[in-house]
């Protein structure tokens, strides 16, 4: 079975056997040009042989290209699952063929996830397959392989494409190959006003406030968790109803969101009560509490993405409807877009899609266009959400 062993920190010299102590004292003084941080994943075979190409791939993308921790985790999960499948089938990674990848894809289509127990989504399957193709393209480019069926052969596997008069043509790639499942774009489903109220009323702290931040600002979960205590205004300024909060977007791009004063006020209460109490308790118990992070859990440590997503899903299930963190973000986008369209119809010279694109941190306007189609199809529900959220804000 393939194993992931995390890189650890160097032990104290006094913990090392006496015959190796001199080397242990010298080790921290060695300067490395591209050091891997503690916690960096190292992949090993069942015989504990290092899977060097996989580690080199992760090293380049995380250390050399300075991708985010989320990107490192994603690539690690993809490579781990792929190499584990190859090992179970007795196939060497450098001998994997197109039929091996197709069998791997089909297994995900037919079986349930061993992690969640649910069927794999088409987007998840395509994401994993795409990651494997990128790995083999990289391996050929870096001379780990002379050639591979899974790299540089896009013309052999591409499916027929039809031009679209409103879209720019692009060169075919392995992403448009027979390996990929046909994927239909799903329109985002925002929550209704009743669902929003019920969900927020039943969420425990700090997850209730985190959900409010997503609903009122449209932040992604990763962006939400990167918020720091220092980014929140110390006090509310009379007459100011909105505050511009600078954030780090996906891919470390700079951006900003506009937070209403009511949200800043609720956050200030959380800081003075829950966060302070949890931090103090962590210190009393001898644990190292979070210092910079805005959102912490009851242990005084930074709030966890997986825990937050599970709490949202579980609370939504208890309320009788589906709820995800992405739906909270979609609710903000549809609410804002509906409001901006209303203002534009009244004569304001604004581009609603462009405004939403900026505030959502999208790279392409086509991504934002999904919310326009959502409110066109389901306008009644969106109007209810819009009126509720705006009336809540004006009343506060």
What report would you give on this structure?
The chain folds into 2 domains: 3-156, no CATH class; 193-395, hpI Integrase, Chain A (Orthogonal Bundle), CATH 1.10.443.10. Helix content is 51%, strand content 6%. It has 15 helices and 4 strands. Strands 1-2 form a two-stranded antiparallel ribbon. A two-stranded antiparallel sheet has the order 3-4. Helix 7 (193-202) packs across helix 11 and helix 12 (325-345) crosses helix 14 (365-377). It is globular and about 70 Å long.
Instruction: State the separation between the terminal residues, measured CA to CA.
Output: 57 Å
CATH topology of the largest domain: hpI Integrase, Chain A
Number of structural domains = 2
Uncertain spans, ≥5 residues at pLDDT below 50? 154-176, 379-396
Kindly state the number of beta strands.
4
Q: Please, how many helices?
A: 15
Widest sheet: strand ordering = 1-2
Helix content: 40-55%
Reading off the top of the CATH hierarchy, the class of the largest domain is best stated as Mainly Alpha
Sequence of secondary-structure elements: EHEHHHHHHHHEEHHHHHH
In the CATH hierarchy, the architecture of the largest domain is Orthogonal Bundle
Characterize the main sheet. Answer: 2 strands, antiparallel
């Amino acid at each position: 079975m393939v194993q992931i062993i995390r890189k650890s920190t160097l032990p104290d010299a006094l913990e090392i056997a006496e015959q190796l102590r001199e080397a242990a004292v010298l080790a921290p003084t060695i300067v490395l040009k591209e050091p891997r941080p503690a916690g960096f994943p190292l992949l090993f075979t069942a015989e504990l042989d290092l899977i060097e190409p996989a580690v080199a791939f992760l090293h380049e993308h995380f250390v050399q290209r300075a991708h985010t921790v989320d990107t490192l985790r994603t690539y690690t999960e993809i490579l781990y699952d792929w190499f584990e499948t190859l090992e179970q089938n007795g196939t060497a990674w450098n001998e994997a063929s197109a039929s091996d990848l197709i069998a791997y894809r089909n297994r995900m289509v037919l079986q349930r996830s061993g992690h969640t127990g649910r069927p794999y989504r088409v987007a998840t399957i395509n994401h994993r397959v795409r990651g494997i193709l990128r790995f083999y393209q990289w391996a050929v480019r870096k001379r780990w392989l002379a050639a591979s069926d899974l790299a540089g052969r896009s013309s052999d596997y591409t499916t027929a494409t039809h031009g679209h008069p409103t879209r720019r043509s692009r060169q075919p790639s392995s992403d448009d190959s027979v390996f990929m499942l046909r994927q239909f774009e799903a329109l985002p489903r925002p929550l209704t006003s009743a669902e929003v109220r019920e969900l927020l009323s039943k969420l425990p702290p700090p997850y209730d406030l985190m959900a409010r931040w997503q609903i009122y600002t449209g932040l992604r979960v990763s962006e939400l968790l990167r918020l720091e205590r220092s980014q929140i205004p110390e006090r509310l300024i009379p007459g100011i109803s909105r505050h511009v909060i600078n954030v780090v977007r996906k891919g470390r791009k700079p951006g900003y969101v506009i937070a209403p004063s009511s949200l800043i006020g609720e956050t200030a209460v959380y800081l003075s009560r829950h966060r302070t109490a949890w931090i103090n308790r962590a210190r009393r118990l001898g644990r190292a509490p979070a210092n910079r992070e805005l959102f912490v859990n009851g242990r005084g440590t930074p709030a966890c993405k997986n825990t937050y997503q599970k709490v949202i899903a579980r609370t939504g299930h208890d309320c009788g409807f589906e709820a995800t963190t992405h739906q909270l973000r979609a609710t903000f986008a549809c609410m804002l877009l509906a409001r901006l369209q209303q203002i534009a119809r009244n004569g304001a010279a604004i581009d609603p899609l462009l405004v939403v694109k900026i505030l959502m941190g999208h790279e392409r306007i086509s991504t934002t266009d999904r919310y326009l189609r959502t409110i066109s199809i389901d306008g009644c529900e969106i109007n209810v959400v819009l009126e509720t959220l705006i009336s809540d804000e004006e009343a506060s």
